[in-house]
């Protein structure tokens, strides 16, 4: 069953074409890894999938579970089950981690959240991620270390149960502990009904997951797709040989 299908996508920001005809399909149960040099358009792609208003689709379509979401608002995409983890979200002193998650969950499901069950799941998930209980009461992102922000993203992914989770890790420089958190979170999240699109060069993050396919994005186009071995190939030889290559 198809989760995400992107056809002939062209995207502009500030009158500049960034994505220049991109196709990508993710089925249920699949994990896709997106590689590419800085400035290739990886973050543009995932922001466009989420409906970020800065990015304009000038041609092509995005389908989610068979429905055209090319023009849908970001909150509708979230309700349909799309999730993007973003690296440095704002600090919100008055809103605790728990309240933020509960509000997000309610906004996505459009149903009142069953508080007791929610608290129970939150406590169990935090324990699995080896997070201290006090963390739930802290102001969202206020004074969080890089590792704590990363844990918070993974906690969000696990609590919100998206159908397709997108992790944009590019700016990373993740330390060993953060890498462990992400890889364990990914392993726990993954099942036969959902999908993942991961932007990373860090093969350790993928240690416990079956990678369905890896794709190389160069200058707004996917120039190569392959299996997991493509990641090792890129790690060894870099992107230079792939500039301008045909699909
Ligand atoms: P990647 O994530 O692969 O490093 P990005 O998608 O962040 O690449 O950026 C791709 C290119 O598009 C870069 O040259 C970047 O400067 C440009 N770009 C990204 N966002 C915008 C924007 N909002 N306005 C103008 N140019 C942008
Ligand atoms: Mg990026
Ligand atoms: Mg336009």
From TrEMBL:
The keyword Oxidoreductase does not apply. Pfam families: ABC_tran (PF00005). SUPFAM superfamilies: P-loop containing nucleoside triphosphate hydrolases. Residues 4-244 form the ABC transporter domain. It comes from the Bacteria. CDD domains: ABC_FeS_Assembly. NCBIfam families: sufC. Belongs to the ABC transporter superfamily. Ycf16 family. This is FeS assembly ATPase SufC.
């Amino acid at each position: 069953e198809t989760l995400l299908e992107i056809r002939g996508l062209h995207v502009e920001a500030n009158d500049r074409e960034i994505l220049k005809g991109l196709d990508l399909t993710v089925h249920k149960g699949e994990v896709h890894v997106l590689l590419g040099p800085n400035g290739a358009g990886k973050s543009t792609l995932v922001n466009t999938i989420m409906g970020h208003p800065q990015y304009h689709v000038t041609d092509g379509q995005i389908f989610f579970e068979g429905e055209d979401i090319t023009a849908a608002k970001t909150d509708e995409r979230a309700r349909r089950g799309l999730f993007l983890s973003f690296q440095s979200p704002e600090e919100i002193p008055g809103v605790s981690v728990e309240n933020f998650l509960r509000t997000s969950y309610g906004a996505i499901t459009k149903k009142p959240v069953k508080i007791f069950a929610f608290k129970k799941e939150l406590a169990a998930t935090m324990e699995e991620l080896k997070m201290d209980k006090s963390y739930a009461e802290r102001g969202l992102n206020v004074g969080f270390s890089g590792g704590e922000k990363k844990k918070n993203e993974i906690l969000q992914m696990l609590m919100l149960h998206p159908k397709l989770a997108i992790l944009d890790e590019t700016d990373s420089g993740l330390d060993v502990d953060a890498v462990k958190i992400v890889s364990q979170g990914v392993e726990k999240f993954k099942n036969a009904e959902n999908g993942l699109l991961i932007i990373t060069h860090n093969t350790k993050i993928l240690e416990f997951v079956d990678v369905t396919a890896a794709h190389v994005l160069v200058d707004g186009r996917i120039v190569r797709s392959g299996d997991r071995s493509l990641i090792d190939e890129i790690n060894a030889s870099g992107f230079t040989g792939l500039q301008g290559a045909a699909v």
